[in-house]
Structures are given as structure tokens and as C-alpha cells.
Specification:
Blueprint lengths: L3 E7 L17 E9 L1 E10 L15 E11 L9 E7 L6 H16 L5 E14 L6 E7 L8 H6 L3 H7 L2 H4 L2 E7 L2
Length: 184
């Protein structure tokens, strides 16, 4: 059983090091290449003891690393995902209960209705290293393929009154969004 992940993202496209430069050696590794925006590398390492993983990065590294604890999981699936969408927020502490409620009771439920929306996992960031954005929450959406992002179910999930209310807030407007393909 894993209780968390280490997510490492290369901030610059190109350069040396490849995936090896991103790894902490924490455990099982998923290697990811972004298609939106294009060309960024990332890794997602799962481990049963995230607190024991050193996430420190050297000065000048063009990496950012987040140590995250599982918050919610829609449940495992037997099918490997073909695309992984990441949404990252810097949620103000006073807004966290409502955001959790929105995700759990509306947003994820609507997305999971789409054929090909396989799984949604949400994590709370416990620590970060590097010069990246100070995200507090990461949501990883496992998709059969990229085309499910054009589904009617996703359109509906993105057009509710509750989401529209959240969209008026600066922290929501500045969320990070990436789409990755796994390197298998």
C-alpha cells in the first residue's frame, strides 16, 4: 500500500540528464512526457513511506519536486492509462474544506461518468524542493486516451455553478495544468 507520491518535474524543455536526473529512488516509477505543454519530463514515484524520502535538490537545478500524501482515490483500475492529466492548485487554507467538498461531491463524480476517465487521485503537498510553484494540492487524472478530455461529461463537469464560483478566485485561475503520456 502506498501512502504517497514524489512528483518531480523538469522545468526546462531539453537539456541533459533525461529521466535519470528526476529520480529519487523512492519506489515504483512512472516516467512521463508532457504533450500540453509539449516536451517537459516528469516522474511520479510511489512509496509506502514518503516521509523517509529526501526531496532536496541542488542549487540551480531546473527541477521541482513535491512530496505528497494521498487525499482521495476514485479506486484502482485494471486498465493502464494512456494519458495522465495533472491539475495543481495553491488552495488557501480557508478554502480547503470547500474545494475538498467540490472535488468529492461533484467534480470527480461527473468526470468519472465519461467512458475512458479511468481514475482520479488527489494528493496534498507536504513538502517541495526547487523553484516551482508552491502548489498545495495535485490531482492526477488517469485517462484511457487524450480524446476523453473532449467528452460531454468533462464539459458538464467544467460548467457547473459551483465550479464557476470557484473560477472567480485568483488561486483557481492560476492553477497548473499538464497532460502527460507515459513512457512505457
Amino acid at each position: 500500500m502506498t501512502d504517497g507520491v514524489i512528483f518531480t518535474q523538469k522545468l526546462q524543455v531539453g537539456g541533459g540528464g533525461g529521466f535519470a536526473a528526476l529520480l529519487t529512488g523512492a519506489g515504483a516509477v512512472e516516467k512521463l512526457l508532457s504533450i500540453d505543454p509539449a516536451g517537459q519530463l516528469a516522474t511520479l514515484e510511489t512509496t509506502g513511506d514518503i516521509a523517509a524520502v529526501d526531496i532536496a535538490l541542488g542549487r540551480g537545478a531546473d527541477l521541482v519536486r513535491y512530496r505528497c500524501r494521498m487525499a482521495t482515490d476514485s479506486g484502482p483500475v485494471d486498465e493502464p492509462y494512456g494519458a495522465l492529466m495533472l491539475v495543481a492548485f495553491a488552495v488557501p487554507p480557508e478554502r480547503k474544506p470547500e474545494v475538498d467538498d467540490w472535488y468529492l461531491n461533484e467534480h470527480i463524480a461527473l468526470l468519472m461518468r465519461a467512458d475512458g476517465w479511468l481514475r482520479a487521485r488527489r494528493y496534498e503537498v507536504e513538502a517541495m524542493s526547487g523553484e516551482g510553484a508552491p502548489w498545495t494540492n495535485l490531482a492526477f487524472h488517469e485517462l484511457r486516451n487524450v480524446s476523453v478530455m473532449d467528452s460531454e461529461e468533462r464539459r458538464i463537469a467544467r460548467s457547473t455553478a459551483w465550479r464557476a464560483e470557484l473560477e472567480t478566485e485568483r488561486w483557481f485561475q492560476t492553477a497548473g495544468r499538464w497532460v502527460f503520456l507515459p513512457e512505457r
